[in-house]
Specification:
heterodimer; A: alpha/beta; Rossmann fold; 7-stranded mixed sheet; 13 helices; 38% helix; B: alpha/beta; two-stranded antiparallel ribbon; 37% helix; globular; transketolase activity (chain B); THDP-binding (chain B); thiamine pyrophosphate (chain B); transferase (chain B)
Chain lengths: 307, 275
Amino acid sequence: MLINLRTAYGEELLALAKENSRVVALDADLCGSTQSVVIEKNFPERYFEMGIGEQNMISVAAGLSLTGKIPFAHSFAVFASGRPFDQIRQSVCLPKLNVKIVGSSCGLSDFGDGATHQSFEDLATMRVLPGMTVFCPADAVETKWAVRQAAAIDGPVYIRLNRNDLPVLFDEKTPFETGKPLVVKEGSQVALVATGTMTAIAMEAAGLLETKGISARVIHLGTIKPLDTAALAKAVNGVRGIVTCEEHTIYGGLGSAVAEALCAAPLPMRMVGIQDRYGQSAVCYDELLVHYGLTKENIAAAAEKLL
Amino acid sequence: MTPDLNGLAEHASAVRRDVVRMIGVARSGHLASSLSIVDLLVWLYWEVLSLRTDEPSWEDRDRFVLGKGHGCPALYAVLANRSFFPREELWSYRRLGAMLQGFPEVRRTPGVDAPGGSLGQGLGLANGLALALRDRASVPSVFCLVGDGELQEGAFWESAMTSAHFSLDSLLLLVDRDGRQMEGATEDIMSLEPVRDKFLAFGWAVEECDGHDFASMEEARARLGSRRGKPGCIVANTVLGKGVSFLENDPSGGRMVLGRDSMDKALRELEKGGD
């Protein structure tokens, strides 16, 4: 079954807003795409259209939070994290303000617009900020969990969202926890540690490896920061190597976070991700995933090299 | 000296002496740009803002955002003299672990309503505060003080557009127009004039005042009136380093490190009641 992550996000944001009057939304002229439009429609007095000005949007969100509001500020991931980086650092993270930043259309998912609208750097830039929680959900179920969890955390949160219809991997019983790895498939020889959209593809890669007689464990990391290092070490215990899988540059994102977390007791690693490049336009999302080497075949090949 | 409105000049002298002492003791800090805003802050904190010094987090208080965070010694000295925290704290300004950091930190310092330091962000924060507070029964006012050099930040004008778009008439912006910035005169580095016309074009109500004359500040505020639907701006003409003769319009842009001798000299001048 496929569910669109933006749709799931909008539904949960609205449900949250109905329960919690402190929740407000801001957008930089993309509310139809990011789905913050659900707040504009249902709670117009709690929606702030900031126009095409992401820096002011983040400062305004910080100001709103100073009175106890819980602002969710939206734009495409590339703009939400990139344009106002200084505002996020100085006016949100440093003072530990309760601002939620939602980066929509992340990675390659805005396939048509191409490089300027595709974001491969946001996990890295958001992750380096002390106090920032970074979520990168894999499906609609986890997206809804991330919305709830973001509101429950008293402090800055970045949620990275894909814009496409994606397979549903989880259900309401899945024990999501901030910072904890989730073993989604058991396996003994190699661990595929994935985040966001790449978790579903890593599952397919594990199936492919199985046909070749290789047992792969699939571990989903829906939180890039904070990361429970001990839990991650435990999750990869016993395998001979790790392949990290992310729709993001291999510099500074999931692969780096895993390498940093395990550097005291390292395992051989390979990183599947964007290889220090910018994106480009294409007629469909899958075409880009193939072009940039984010397929089950790429992951399986990387795993085989480790064995 | 400026006409004394309810003893404000005396408070301003005490605050200036504390600013000189705290920067002198710390041997670090932006002295001249702190001195230029002392009178504006004294006016705000003794005459204008609705506050409870024994309840700094009182929800219905007026809010103050210091955009030019480097001027925070003046804010700290004002807050201490208004008894938000013990005056002794001033002498550990900029020390490791101190409550009074080089730039204002919200939650760390009683009476500080918003973070400040990265120039150009204060007005956006003030917009957020004004938007959040406007639904209250008695709408608190939000005051924001920015340096003139700060107007060179593009994001400031995003915020200026926003204040007007949302008709934030509970917002009053003060521009510390000392005409100087780090490397020289604002008009040489990146010209700002006509400042007044820029704000008018952005949909603001604008007045000017002498930023060292309390009566002039009061008059400007009165002229702005309730400004129905428009954010208000007072361009306060100030003198960098105001109150210390050898700092006033010092060509080094006020970057002089205050040695023991010059600190004593400055304090002697201020004891006499300045100019």
